[in-house]
Amino acid sequence: MKFGVFYEIQLPTPWGAGDQARMFRETLEHVVLADRLGIDHMWAVEHHFLEDHALSSAPESWLPAAAALTKNIRIGHGIACLPPGFSHPARVAERIATLDLVSNGRVEFGTGESASKMELEGFGVDPKTKRQAYLEALEQICNMMAMSPYPGFEGEFFKMPCRNILPKPMQTPHPPVWVAGKPDVAAHHGMGCLGFNVMSGAMARAAVALYYKILAENCVPIGHAINPNIAVLANFHVHPDAKVARDRGEHLKFFGYSIGKYYLQGKVRPGRSNGWDEFLAIKDGFPQLGGDNPTSAIGTPDEVRSHLRELQAAGVDQVMLMHQGGRMPHEWNCESLELFAREIMPEFHDNEDIRLARKMSSLEPLIEAAMKRKIWMKGLGDDVPVIEPYGSASFIPKEGDYSGVSPDTRGALGLAGKT
């Protein structure tokens, strides 16, 4: 089984001077540590306007820094918001491909449609049609990264003419595609499942069984390749002393609080939040963290190991460690990850290559059958349209724009010999 570290970059309000810059600095330090310790993946969310939940509104801006500072860890969007109101699909394709090149082919393309009123309505995305908009955009983003040139598209939610989308990613036909949410949606479209709802072993077994059933029977790939993997989230903190682990883990309850605030029943006044005090007033009503339940991998190495074994036995491919929440001190986070990498992770990494090879071998006929069900976008062959420029541009001077300047200046502007 593999492991990822999961970054909301969560900072409860109120904020002090320099707090936001500190959080990004500490996050990058933690990514570097995770890479050195041999953690397999890192995942960065894309959330907008959720003050108490996440500062990672522009992962495409800080993930290149993470890539530049690391060597081996996979660089994951967890997720990129794809309905065209958030970003034009061509811009997403350009960003993903560029990051893949910068990272030397380490990108994981996690995708999603968003679910909060704050975000969807902030960008003018209709919640009633967000799923259709997401699927339309994702299919075309994959086509944009894999096809030269991209033939163009006229859909319900965006349109564009034939263009060659550049650059092309290092990974072919494109980086592995994942989707946040339910395993049925992931399997139907041939994507990896980013299960951001934390699970017990029993819940994970049900999710894994559903995923592979649909993959075998009804998968029609949305991309140019299938990514048959399941990742689940686990609130995470490990310490030799169980009480210390649970006391520190209390900060991670803030993650559940902020989910409820922005997605379920909170009343939010933008720019006027005091999330930390609101949380402290109700946190004792949250369930105890730890054990094999849908709340966490929090406790001693033996306790955390026990929970992870349940997920491994269920057939989970990766556990994403939700390690930073509330006002968890950076030093505690680093100590916890170092202990995990030293005392827990090695046994789960043992024979992982063999497990993965056996799994992929068993899935070969299912993947082959699913790829045959895909309706492929037709390329243009030699029938590529000719596009002529406008014939003028605002940055190119016209006659008379620079009268009275020196001959040398006129020559540099392409006006030599003209009066």
Which secondary structure elements does this structure contain, and how are they paired or packed?
Layout: E1 2-7, H1 19-37, E2 41-44, H2 59-69, E3 74-81, H3 89-102, E4 107-112, H4 117-122, H5 130-146, E5 153-154, E6 159-160, E7 177-180, H6 183-188, E8 192-195, H7 201-218, E9 230-238, H8 242-249, H9 253-265, H10 275-282, E10 297-299, H11 301-314, E11 318-322, H12 330-343, H13 345-349, H14 352-373, H15 407-412
Parallel strand pairs: 1-2, 1-11, 2-3, 3-4, 4-7, 7-8, 8-9, 9-10, 9-11
Antiparallel strand pairs: 5-6
How would you sum up this structure in a few lines?
It is built from 15 helices and 11 strands. The protein has helices at residues 19-37, 59-69, 89-102, 117-122, 130-146, 183-188, 201-218, 242-249, 253-265, 275-282, 301-314, 330-343, 345-349, 352-373, 407-412; strands spanning 2-7, 41-44, 74-81, 107-112, 153-154, 159-160, 177-180, 192-195, 230-238, 297-299, 318-322.
